[in-house]
Amino acid sequence: MQDAIQKKQVKRPKNRLSYKGAWKDRLRKFVFGSKEKEGAGKQVVVYVLLISIGFVYLYPLLYMISKSFMTVSDLLDSSVQWLPTTGYIDNYKNAARAMNFWKTFKDSVIVAGIPTLINVVICATVGYGFARYNFPGKKVLMGLLIFSFIIPPQITMMPTYVFYTDLGIINSLKAFVIPAILGQGLKAQIFILIFWQFFRQVPQALIEAAKIDGAGHFKSFARISIPSAAPAILVVFLFSIVWYWNESYLTQLYVVGATGGSESTLSTLVVSLKTFESSYSAAASQSGGMMVSINENIKMAGTMLSILPLLIMYFVLQRQFVESVDRTGITGE
Amino acid sequence: MKKQKKVKPGRLKRRENMMGYVFILPWLLGLLGLVLFPFAESFKYSLNRIIINPVLGRVMEFRGLENYRNIFLEDPDFLVQLQGYLAQTILAVPVIVAFALIIAILLNGKIRMRGFFRLIFFLPVIIASGPVMSQLMDQGAASIPMMNVSMITGFFADYLPKVIANAVSNVFSNIIMLLWYSGVQILIFLAALQKIDSSLYEAAKIDGGSGWECFWKITMPTIKPMVLLNAVYTIIFMSNTDTNSIINLISQRMFSTSASAGGYGYASAMAWCYSVVVTLLVIVMAALLVGRKDIYERRAKKYRREQKKQQKLAKKFRRRGERNARRNTKKASKAA
Question: Nearest Cβ partner of B135 from A56, A273, A325?
Fold first, then answer.
């Protein structure tokens, strides 16, 4: 064995151009890599792919930002591609006026925030119940949990709408709050499963120790399990708020209502983006010539405004978001 | 395999377990009131004509399967849009899953700034809501700028039937949107890839396996469940996004006052049809991905079959030998 290796080394000394065509071998090794080391060529390909795909990913966003700062003349000028000629922020001003930005923003925070808080509390409780106790019929109920996630919301939409109308909670925040209290908030099933996964990992000994010290069921839940589930709470909170924020179909149906847009009712940024054109023209006619008629740049500015709060949140809390999928245990432990 | 003896919980434990019901009580109520009840109710609706009367409120009139008949025979939009939806989903799901897998594998290698790239690829999950998407699609910001989309779509329009050609051109002209839909899938694949034991690869390398072989024989079998999970996730996601025209059609029909094609009953029937189609799609996808055994199982099966054959053969030979021996002894005794 030892001899064979030495022979090989003698035959082909490393880093030496002593045999014919050695530089070719070295070049090949450098570009394609060997078993021990990745080749530079492969690395270059990987980086080029990643960077170009990353650019494609960001392209709509960059496009949106660039367009939203352009004036109308920039839009028509074919020599202006990406960089606007002047720092022009009237698009944002007009879009914000049409969307009634600050009020809508406040509404969005309320519409996304309150159900989210309830979601976190209820899902944690239900997840704990599933994880800690082996009551009869648990498997069936877990099956029903999955089932309620899979059935398309369109099926239950009509009766639920009628039900809410009968209860008189339609077109108000209650239409989101009450389902959240009953553990049927937006994608609550996923959150219950996340908590279930988490609480299963809490060591039984801890809870038994608490029990010996005289803690009841609720105390050991609140004092032992909840603090240890902080990462899960964060994940659920973030995703719940993002999903509620981005939901426009159900928000429009249940909370905003068909009339929508008036001062008294709630309206979220995403929903107002959906009706942006009509609300813009209404605002423009009210302003009496103060606002220019709608163009693409203003639409882009409106879109940008509606996602800006989420973008800021994402860049502040990026780690928590990106690592969340690992933490949810969706890939199976 | 030894069967494990089940320990029956004692009475105290059982009583304690009843506390579980207390914890899940809110959800249980919600399940009954907001899932199972509407589920049954919606089926009832779909068999009725529901008229909103200003005096009497809702009036239900039993009409049997009339709603379903109208959807398939008279509604001008539903079938057309269903075809479009099917063609688009069937095309888009493999694109999204394959793309997510490629990105995940690229990210899984030894690269610098992995966190930064993950950040970019996950960004769309945060901002991709229906209205934002439709705004961007309207602007044409959803297609790759250097790609000549109209040429590609023109090419397909010449050779394929119209529904499929439309779907293909849709995929090409909104390709960035499809890529945007794959943020969660990338992370799921990435998490799965990072959990593969690296000693498997080392062992394969020592045995002389190339990267290509390692991919097909180690990586793919390990992350196969994730492929299924992602495919199902993608289907469900694509059927419930705001940009999907069918769900908008359903809510539009819900508030429509047309006599034969409107109202809650009609919309419920439509939702049921749609859900059945989506469920079928999921089942077909699952059957395609689950049914296939991986290479090891196939080999093991082949090996077992071969062994059985050999055992049979050995038995045959042994029997023949015994018979011959008996015959020989008989002959010998006769001769004696």
Answer: A273
- Report the C-alpha gap between A243 and A257 in whole angstroms: 19
pLDDT tens profile A194-236: 888 888 888 888 888 888 888 888 888 888 888 888 888 888 8
Q: Given CB atoms, is B129 within the 8 Å cutoff of chain A?
A: yes
Contact B184 A159 (CB under 8 A): no
| pLDDT, mean of residues A235-257 | 84
The partner residue sitting opposite B191, judged by closest CB among A133, A271, A326, is A326
* Residue A281 main-chain phi, psi, to 5 deg: -65, -35
> A156, A241, A316: which to substitute to probe chain B, counting the most B Cβ within 10 Å?
A156
Q: Tell me whether residues A141 and B247 touch, CB distance under 8 A.
A: no
Question: Of A143-157, A312-326, B16-30, where does mean pLDDT reach its minimum?
Answer: A312-326
Residues in chain B closer than 8 A to A35 (CB atoms) = 205
- CB half-sphere exposure, A129, CA atoms < 13 A: 26
User: In terms of pTM, does the model score above 0.80?
Assistant: no
Cβ–Cβ below 8 Å for B191 and A307: no
Q: Examine the predicted complex and report whether its ipTM is higher than 0.85.
A: no
**How near does any CA of chain B get to the CA of A146, in Å?**
11
Asked if B135 and A46 come within 8 Å (Cβ–Cβ), the reply is no
Question: For position B147, what pLDDT does the model report?
Answer: 63
CB B121 within 8 A of CB B186: yes
Residue B207's φ and ψ, nearest 5 degrees, are -75, 5
Sign of CA dihedral A271, A301, B241, A324: negative
What CA–CA distance (Å, rounded) separates B237 from B78? Answer: 20
Buried b (16+ CB within 10 A) or exposed e, A142-173: eebbeebeebbebbbbbbbbbbbeeeebbbbb
Positions in chain B short of pLDDT 50: 1-2
Closest Cβ opposite residue A38 in set B110, B117, B127: B110
Compare all CA atoms of chain A with the CA of B52 and give the residue at the minimum distance: A162
Question: Residue A222 to residues A210, A214, B23, B319, B327: CA-CA distances in angstroms?
Answer: 11, 14, 12, 73, 85
Q: Give me B188's structure tokens.
A: 């799921």
Token look-up 């290509």 returns: B212
